[in-house]
Specification:
Low-confidence stretches: none
Shape: globular
CATH topology: Arc Repressor Mutant, subunit A
Strand content: 15-25%
CATH architecture: Orthogonal Bundle
Strand order of the largest sheet: 1-2-3
Distance between the termini: 21 Å
Radius of gyration: 15 Å
Structural class: alpha+beta
CATH class: Mainly Alpha
Number of domains: 1
């Protein structure tokens, strides 16, 4: 989705409001994938840092899903196991269904 933007903050910005105004970071990284849906409404998805890295690799480096997941596993010094690949594919399907991503890159 050309409108999609990945943003990470040291605060849970989706919770900030009149009853919650943090005065210091909570020690966690909060990542969001923001996009406009088919009706042009702004939507967001909260992502963990690994999911945010997956989106980043697909969008910026034009990686295929499996290729991006293998790279992340290597970066984390973890095996690229079938459950890890399945979890990544599940996330990508959800992001595609929500309209946040249009798909991944294909091998020519």
């Amino acid at each position: 989705n050309p409108s999609a933007r990945l943003a990470c903050y040291r605060y849970p910005v989706h919770r900030i409001g009149p009853r919650f105004e943090p005065d210091a970071p909570d020690g966690q990284t909060w990542c969001y994938l923001l996009h406009r849906d088919a009706e042009d409404d702004v939507r967001f998805t909260v992502l963990n840092p690994v999911a945010a890295r997956l989106v980043e690799l697909i969008r910026r480096e034009r990686r295929r899903g499996r290729e991006a997941l293998a790279r992340i596993a290597a970066e984390l010094n973890q095996p690229c196991s079938d459950p890890f690949i399945e979890a990544g594919h599940h996330l990508l399907r959800e992001l595609r269904q929500s309209g946040a991503l249009l798909g991944t890159w294909r091998t020519p």
